[in-house]
Design a protein that fits this description.
Acyl-CoA carboxylase epsilon subunit; about 70 residues; mainly alpha; propionyl-CoA carboxylase activity; 1 helix; ACC_epsilon
Amino acid sequence: MSQPTAQPLFTVVKGAPTDEELAALTQVLTDLQQAAKARTSGGHRNLWGRPTPREHGPVVFNPSAFNSQTLF
């Protein structure tokens, strides 16, 4: 198991849940938290749609870049 945290995972503000209900809710919230961490940790990021590729420098506007269109 993990080490106990200084702050509680959640607090009950209304009602009187049983120990079994609290244990079940704790397990569900812990599983959801671990699943969220697994989705966001590492892995392959597809940067295809990124507006500026990381490998290239910033795009510089050049109005005379295609003056000689007949060569293309």
